[in-house]
Design a protein that fits this description.
The structure holds 2 protein chains of 2 kinds. By secondary structure, chain A is an alpha/beta fold. Chain A contains 10 helices and 10 strands. The chains are: A alpha/beta, B mainly alpha.
Chain lengths: ~260, ~550
């Protein structure tokens, strides 16, 4: 079954066209890494898929339902985790998860059991009754991750899920994503961390300037681009390799032109 | 003015304190600090003004100038220089200490220095002097704003000698207030952590606003300056108070009295501030910086952070099932209950409004000009309790507008990513929460007070009043913009066309109060009116609950 189906997706912000006709389908149980340079349209695509942005052109369906017509039904069955750890941080993790759980209409017992257990898993048990305004970005990101999964969604949309997490948490999240895949969940996520995308994605979609420029498994992309790592493939496809070298050289020239101190 | 003062202070440092100071770096650090202060975003919910936020410091300085104006008038009118100078110096001491604790805490508690400047090649003496200059720029601005008009009044009323001495004593009393502030901070830091300090500062800010609101409305009506002026005398313990030292010093130079008492006071006025200043520079300021630095580096503060296990959590979670049916509504009820008790921005804007209840009661009770005992005697025969019934809702309904705004409004994304079909349910939960948390307790207290004065006859009025207020509360919510709680940016401009809605709303309130007033004599009619008020409230809640996304302002 196609969990996600996008046909000719276009989105403008004023005169700026961010998405210029995206077409793609995602099947059940796939882990899709959605990568691209800053401003390529990754977050915009994810927000449209999650039913947060409804002002777009084209046809988008998630779980076989049109996102414009059935946003509530879709939101009930998906999880969305944004990049920015924006949450009501005067609340404690337990209180915040209770709040989110109730928005998903979960029972009190269900919320309490799941949030307590998940907080324990993320090593936040001893902080479950502390207000989050003293938390680091990584700790808040963990709470966000739990809040997006607490209702056991079928599809999970993650926008830069690893930003701000420490090395241990990154490994844990990678492992959780693999487990979610094993449980038949579909995962669609954007990330800047290429080696993670390379290792855990079944499929990698590279987007640049609002268009899909590559789509396939890591092996397929490597074959087509005849480059070693995903980072090299990405740089080659987004036309950055020469430009990056030139910028770095210019940077050093400017540094060397002045004096010390 | 800040730029001018900065240049002035830098010039002094360049001329007199050259030792060990890197002047170029000092200049750039202090200039950048002043620039950052000017750009700092301040909490401002006052969206009705339809203007961009002004420089908040400038507004504070103008308000302080106005306070100074009142004290200048007092100096002109009071005959006793001793009394007027005690008032003036006490006012300076209190205002400076309060200002330092509230408005100035960001400068005193600024630990960004440790992260930004310490890793750069700047010596510690330069950093210390930069911090002192930064603080002095503000102190001088506040001092000038507070004291310029009263000082002019001293020059005009008491002569040049008294005026010049008063300038000196002004600076001396400010030194003492800085010392008191530092001491207070250090004491708090000693027994708690940075978060606690910030919480305490928050409470101080609320207290200060309430004090000013009540003080400026009520005090001038209570104090009979003429009477005090004629019968003023100092008690023995007064001589231990800094404002008295300063006042007697000014008096000594005006009247040329140099008896042992005045000489003693002059000595105290000069030596105590100098000693405190030395003590501050030598011990308090460095230990304060160390303490702040240590706090930032250690994780210890975090471990001591506020736990909310037994706080508002249980109460809101127990109440929500009693007043809310749907899970989503309960979510709105609980989160608003919890956040309104913790968000400083909300508390700062909302709680001072309660001061108006005191002010209004005072004005209505005392407007007759009769003395207190005859007013109290007449009260049981009056309809005064009608004010008590309808006053709290005027203040509490302000919370409906405030609850939409939040400094970290981005956290509101959660409403849009979760399956909420009727966002009105969140809003109705929020409104029920505000009504229960803020209106009901105040109304209950007023009812008890009224019951003691008026007895059984007011019960039906208060029962009807409860539902009439609930109705007005819901009406305020319906007439206002529909926003999700804590999800809108501060300083958003008011939309056009709201004024007409506001007028209609005021009209309805006036009509309900008028109806109640005319029904006062007919007991059974009041009982009869309770039912329609209940039904109207019920349907209004239903209306709010049925709001869909298209009705919500995002």
């Amino acid at each position: 079954m196609n969990m996600i189906q996008i046909h000719d997706l276009r989105k403008n912000f004023g005169d700026n066209q961010v998405l210029k006709g995206i077409n793609l389908t995602v099947e059940t149980g796939q882990i899709v890494g959605y990568i691209g340079p800053n401003g390529a349209g990754k977050s915009t695509t994810i927000k449209i898929l999650a039913g947060i942005t409804s002002d777009f052109e084209g046809d988008v369906s998630v779980l076989g339902m049109n996102v414009r017509e059935n946003p509530i039904e879709i939101k009930q069955r998906i999880g969305y985790i944004p990049e920015q750890a924006a949450l009501y941080d005067v609340l404690t993790p337990i209180e915040y998860l209770r709040f989110v759980g109730k928005l998903y209409q979960l029972s009190d017992e269900n919320i309490l059991t799941k949030s307590t257990e998940l907080l324990r898993l993320f090593e936040l048990s001893d902080k479950s009754d502390l207000r989050m305004n003293a938390f680091s970005k990584g700790m808040k990101q963990k709470v966000l991750l739990i809040s997006g999964l607490i209702h056991n969604p079928d599809i999970i949309f993650l926008d830069e899920p690893l930003s701000g997490l420490d090395a241990n948490a990154v490994i844990l999240v990678k492992e959780i994503l693999s487990q979610l895949k094993k449980a038949g969940k579909t995962i669609f996520y954007s990330s800047h961390i290429m080696d993670v995308v390379e290792k855990i994605s079944d499929r990698i979609i590279i987007i640049d300037k609002g268009r899909v420029i590559a789509d396939g498994s890591f092996e397929e992309l490597k074959q087509n681009a005849s480059q070693g790592s995903l980072e090299n493939i990405f740089t080659a496809l987004t036309g950055g390799s020469d430009q990056h070298q030139e910028t770095a050289k210019e940077f050093m020239d400017i540094l060397n032109s002045g004096q010390h101190g | 003015m800040d730029k001018f003062l900065l240049k002035f202070l830098l010039a002094i440092v360049q001329k007199f304190v050259r030792n060990g100071i890197d002047f170029d770096r000092l200049k750039i650090i202090t200039e950048t600090k002043i620039l950052m202060d000017r750009r700092r975003v301040h909490v401002n919910y006052n969206k009705q003004k339809n203007k961009d936020p002004k420089n908040p410091l400038l507004i504070t300085l103008i308000v302080y100038g106005l306070f100074g104006f009142f004290f200048a008038i007092m100096i002109f009118t009071l005959k006793s220089i001793q009394l007027s100078m005690i008032f003036f110096h006490a006012y300076l001491l209190v205002m400076m200490a309060m200002t330092l604790i509230t408005d100035f805490s960001t400068v005193l508690l600024d630990t960004t220095d440790n992260q930004i400047i310490l890793p750069r090649p700047v010596n510690s003496r330069t950093i210390f002097v930069a911090r002192m200059i930064h603080i002095l720029v503000y102190l001088l601005q506040f001092t000038i704003a507070l004291s310029i008009l009263p000082l002019i009044a001293v020059f005009v009323t008491h002569g040049i000698a008294a005026g010049l001495v008063a300038i000196l004593t002004t600076l001396l009393i400010v030194t003492i207030s800085v010392f008191i502030t530092y001491l207070l901070y250090i004491l708090i830091l000693k027994f708690s952590n940075e978060q606690k300090v910030k919480d305490i500062i928050g409470y101080f800010q609320i207290l200060m606003t309430i004090t000013f609101t009540v003080g400026f409305q009520v005090l001038p009506r209570l104090i009979d300056f003429d009477q005090i002026d004629q019968s003023f005398s100092l008690s023995w313990y007064s001589y231990f108070l800094p404002p008295v030292w300063m006042a007697l010093t000014v008096e000594a130079f005006k009247e040329l009295i140099f008896d042992p008492l005045h000489l003693g006071m002059i000595t105290a006025a000069i030596t105590v501030p100098i000693i405190t200043f030395w003590f501050m520079i030598k011990y308090l300021a460095p230990s304060f910086s160390r303490k702040l630095g240590a706090m930032q580096n250690s994780d210890g503060a975090r471990k001591k952070k506020v736990t909310d296990k037994k706080e508002s959590r249980f109460l809101s979670e127990r109440l929500s099932p009693l007043v809310c049916k749907k899970e989503v509504e309960k979510a709105g009820f609980e989160m608003v209950w919890k956040i309104t008790g913790r968000d400083k921005g909300f508390k700062m804007q909302f709680y001072p409004g309660f001061a108006y209840i005191v002010v209004f009661v005072f004005i209505f009770v005392f407007k007759s000009g009769k003395n207190l005992s005859s007013i109290i005697e007449d009260l049981p025969n009056s309809n005064g309790y009608l004010w008590l019934i309808y006053l709290p809702v005027l203040t509490v309904s302000g919370s409906i507008t405030l609850v939409a705004f939040y400094e970290q409004f981005q956290a509101g994304w959660i409403y849009y990513s979760t399956p909420i079909k009727y966002p009105g349910q969140i809003i109705s939960g929020a409104i029920k929460s505000l009504f229960l948390k803020f209106f009901v307790p105040v109304y209950s207290i007023l009812f008890i007070a009224a019951y003691f004065i008026w007895g059984n006859q007011i019960i039906n009025d208060f029962v009807f009043g409860f539902f009439a207020n609930a109705m007005l509360f819901m009406l305020t919510a319906i007439f206002g913009e529909q926003s999700m709680p804590f999800a809108r940016q501060l300083n958003i401009k008011m939309q056009a066309g709201k004024f007409v809605k506001f007028i209609i709303q005021v009209g309805i309130v006036a009509a309900i109060v008028a109806m109640h007033y005319f029904a006062l004599k007919i007991n059974w009619l009041i009982w009869l009116l309770i039912l329609p008020a209940m039904v109207a409230t019920y349907f209004m809640i239903k209306k709010i609950q049925n709001y869909r996304w298209r009705d919500i302002t995002i």
